[in-house]
Amino acid sequence: MWWTAAPRAVAGGVCYCCKTALASGGDAVYAAWRHVYPGNLRDIAFTISRDGGRTFSAPVRVSEDKWVLEGCPDDGPAMAVDAKLFRWCERHHTALARGDRRALAEAAERAVVSSFLAGTNLHGCVLPLVSLGVDMRDVYAATHWAMQGRPPGYHTPDEDVYLPGRNVVLLGKAAVYCAAAKIERLVIGTLAHNPFPDATPAFREAMARALSLGLGRPLQIEAPYANTEKSEVIRRGAALGVPFELTLSCMNPPQAFSPQPSALSHQSLALHCGECSKCRERHDAFVDAGTPDPTSYASTAHLR
């Protein structure tokens, strides 16, 4: 592929000493670089053009490593398009060394979301990803499975994954962000038969009223799939061509504990353990929907 157009800026805030990675395949042009985010955080960003470089998607943050450095690390990313591979230097080894499974799993989830946004044709439909942090270590007991990063097993009941106050805290912080960004509609992914008290219509209505009053701005909290089974969500996604291989349900993703997570392919990024109850829910939903399950599971002992 040859480019003849005049040079133009794709993004600002680039760490100018770190090399920028460019790659192409067909009409697609890929670019990745180390971006300087607020607070001098130097993380990897990615964008894609599907029209030969004439326009580019909004940059997405590949992974929130939150690498703070008062200077240039002189270390940018590398890409291989055919393998859909990223590689970069980051802080993952620090968390791996201290055994912080919770932080590692959250980083894996953010990486999958970034990969999904970059790998789908959502240009112009989705604003850049914003990640809000909520630390519950001072509230939950150190023995809680969420603190230890050891989720309930495959055949355990839904009640075992309960996180007290989860939606209270998440909706509260998200509402503050929405108020600042002048967003008046907040949507959550509650599904049918959710047994928890913070997943009811009454709870959502009460939270919307309280947050609207407390923030002085109107806010609607909606759960469009609250009466929809997960299998029906799978059917709808299949009809829309959703790349399920770039989605993640697992509570214990094996890739989070890889010594080199930044060198994982898209398929490996979305690897599921196959041993937690969310993997069971996911696989059962594909089976019930009559849709082939494209998920890569580290353990296939429970698959039907």
Q: Could you give the order of strands across the largest sheet?
A: 1-2-3-4
Q: What level of helicity do the residues show?
A: 25-40%
Number of helices: 8
Question: How many strand units?
Answer: 8
CATH homolog superfamily of the largest domain: HUPs
Distance between the termini: 45 Å
How large is the share of residues in beta strands?
A: 5-15%
Our Rg estimate from Cα atoms comes to: 20 Å
**Spans of 5+ residues with little confidence (pLDDT < 50)?**
88-99, 259-266
The largest sheet is: 4 strands, antiparallel
Q: Strand-and-helix sequence, N→C?
A: EEEEEEHHHHEHEHHH
Envelope shape: globular
Q: Structural class of the secondary structure composition?
A: alpha+beta
* Gross CATH architecture of the largest domain: 3-Layer(aba) Sandwich
* Topology-level CATH name of the largest domain: Rossmann fold
Mean of residue pLDDT values? 81
Number of self-contained structural domains: 2
Report the top-level CATH class of the largest domain: Alpha Beta
